[in-house]
Each structure stands twice: as structure tokens, then as C-alpha cells.
From TrEMBL, chain A:
One of its GO terms (cellular component) is cytosol. Residues 51-126 form the Thioesterase domain. Coiled coil: none annotated. It comes from the Bacteria. It comes from Salipiger marinus. This is Uncharacterized domain 1-containing protein. InterPro entries: HotDog_dom_sf, PAAI_dom, Thioestr_dom.
TrEMBL record, chain B:
CDD domains: PaaI_thioesterase (cd03443). Residues 93-162 form the Acyl-CoA thioesterase-like N-terminal HotDog domain. It comes from Salipiger marinus. This is Acyl-coenzyme A thioesterase PaaI, contains HGG motif. Pfam families: 4HBT_3 (PF13622).
Length: 141, 169
């Protein structure tokens, strides 16, 4: 059952057109957590002068990772949608480096999943961004 | 007492549109999402043309929430950048040649961004406008809203704080 749910979450994420457009890759997924990598790309730059990735792409990475963690939770909903997402940008991601998001669905009720996430580049001791989000628990897809 | 004769309308429009194009299309990620800006005087409306790659839930289908957030963030940054250059643009202090050559004014940096999803984004064009609610020397607060068919039924709203570039007010 657990592996079914995780396989479902993985295949759902892999089929998202925007996730493919960004080259998102699931590094690991299981029991209310997910880790997803976004490779650096010149197309995603938000500040041409510095080569730093746009916050919008980081939002999509965080949102996708939060949704994946929710779908992989033991009380997993059939489907989920983001209700709110707050991102704190701690520093610019280093140009040329992939960004990896780690999300944890730390609490669920019948209606809501609560998620926190962090985004890292190669300097894993200094996060690029942190996020908190709420996701819906949809009874059917 | 006579005020100087205003520039011909074509000159004014061309100056403003050139500056706006340079500001927005100079950002690779804005081109990646194919976001363009409509301008009426100093008011900007972002237009994100629909494309299949913007989908986040293929079953519904619905726009990716991250893309909607990105539309709001792009609109906030460009609107804030536009507010910053407007006066220099109008007074002629800002060189259009420099802008066109890619020497853009530094853009504000996002400090935090909070998005509130109101409705699922449909597979069609989306629009957004941002309002600078407070602009200080160092920080700015912005509110933004995105909608599709019906302006009165927004799909998402956001509030965000930005760090203003140094040397600009």
C-alpha cells in the first residue's frame, strides 16, 4: 500500500508538463517527504547581470515538492491543490548550480496538509530559500 | 510664464514602450514564461499567453500553481522596476540607448513572497497587475492579483517584500 501511494505520487509528478519544462527530477520520495532537483538553466535566470535563477522558478520547484510530499503522506489525499505558499529568499542561488528542494508534510487534518520546505544549492549548509505551505486534501482526483 | 511644449505623442509612446520592453524582455525567465506587458500610461498589465507547458495538473487540467506564483512575482518586480525608472524616463535622465543595449537598471530583489490561491487556473491566458503599496528607500511592499476570464474572480493574489537596488530611490 505504501509503495503504491509513493509510486502514484512519483508518476503524478513525472507527468506534470511544467515539471518537465523545468527538468525537475525526483531524487527521493516517501512517507510525507520528497526531494526534487531543478538543474540550472540560462532560461530560468531572473537577473541577467548576476545569473541568479528567478524566484518564480524556485516557487514552482517548492510548490511541486510540497505537493509531492503531501501525496506521499500515509494519510494521502487522492489529489491535492496548493492553498497558500510563503517563500523567504535567504540568498541568491549560485549561478550554474542545481537547486534541490526538500519538503516535509509535517501535519495533516482531514482537510489540510501543512508543509515546510527548504531549497539548497551545492553549499548545503546555507539554504537558498525556505517555504511553508498549506495544501488541500481532495477526497477524489 | 509658459510651460515647455510637450513632446509629440509618438515620441512619448515610443520612449515608454522601448523602456518597458527593455525592462521586461531583458529577463530570460520572463521570456521562458512568455509574459508580455500591456501599458496604459504608467499602468501595466502582464499577459501570460497559454501554453501546454504551463500545466501543473494534467487531469483537470490546471495551470501549475508555481507558474501562477511566478506570474505574480514577475508582475510585481517589473511593476516596481517600472515605478523606479518612470521619473527618470519622463525627465529624459534615463538613456534609451543604454536600455536598448541591455544596460538595465538593477531590479529589486525579492525578500519574501506569499501567494494565496483562490481558484484553479484554467488552460488559457492569464493576466496580472501589481500595486506598489509602499515604496521606501530600502524596502518596498507590493500586492498583486492574477485573473483570467473575469477580472472580479481572481485566481490568486500575493503580497511580497522587496529590497530596492542601491543608488536608486
Amino acid at each position: 500500500m505504501t509503495s503504491d501511494r509513493i509510486a502514484h505520487a512519483r508518476s503524478f509528478i513525472d507527468q506534470i508538463p511544467q515539471a518537465r519544462a523545468l527538468g525537475l527530477e525526483i531524487l527521493s520520495i516517501g512517507e510525507g517527504r520528497a526531494e526534487i532537483r531543478m538543474p540550472w538553466s540560462a532560461d530560468l535566470v531572473g537577473d541577467p547581470e548576476t545569473g541568479v535563477i528567478h524566484g518564480g522558478a524556485v516557487s514552482t520547484l517548492m510548490d511541486t515538492c510540497g505537493g509531492a510530499a503531501t501525496l506521499a503522506h500515509p494519510a494521502a489525499p487522492a489529489a491535492t491543490a496548493t492553498m497558500s505558499l510563503r517563500i523567504d529568499y535567504l540568498r541568491g542561488a549560485t549561478p550554474g548550480q542545481a537547486i534541490t528542494a526538500q519538503a516535509e508534510c509535517h501535519h495533516v487534518t482531514r482537510s489540510v496538509a501543512f508543509v515546510r520546505a527548504v531549497a539548497l544549492d551545492e553549499d548545503t549548509r546555507r539554504p537558498v530559500a525556505t517555504a511553508t505551505g498549506t495544501f488541500t486534501m481532495e477526497p477524489s482526483a | 510664464m509658459s510651460r515647455p511644449r510637450p513632446d509629440p505623442v509618438q515620441v512619448v509612446k515610443q520612449r515608454r514602450d522601448t523602456a518597458l520592453r527593455a525592462l521586461a524582455s531583458g529577463v530570460p525567465y520572463v521570456r521562458f514564461l512568455d509574459i508580455n506587458f500591456d501599458r496604459r500610461g504608467d499602468e501595466l498589465t502582464a499577459v501570460m499567453s497559454y501554453d501546454d507547458k504551463l500545466i501543473g495538473n494534467p487531469h483537470l487540467p490546471a495551470l501549475h500553481g508555481g507558474v501562477t506564483a511566478a506570474l505574480l512575482e514577475v508582475t510585481s518586480i517589473i511593476t516596481l522596476g517600472w515605478t523606479v525608472i518612470w521619473e527618470d524616463l519622463e525627465s529624459g535622465a534615463l538613456s534609451l540607448d543604454a536600455l536598448e543595449a541591455g544596460r538595465l537598471p538593477r531590479l529589486p530583489k525579492t525578500i519574501d513572497f506569499t501567494v494565496d490561491y483562490l481558484r484553479s487556473g484554467l488552460p488559457r491566458d492569464a493576466y496580472a497587475r501589481a500595486r506598489v503599496t509602499r515604496q521606501g528607500r530600502r524596502y518596498a511592499s507590493v500586492h498583486a492579483e492574477a485573473w483570467q476570464d473575469n477580472r472580479a474572480r481572481p485566481i490568486a493574489q500575493a503580497v511580497a517584500h522587496f529590497l530596492m537596488p542601491r543608488g536608486q530611490t
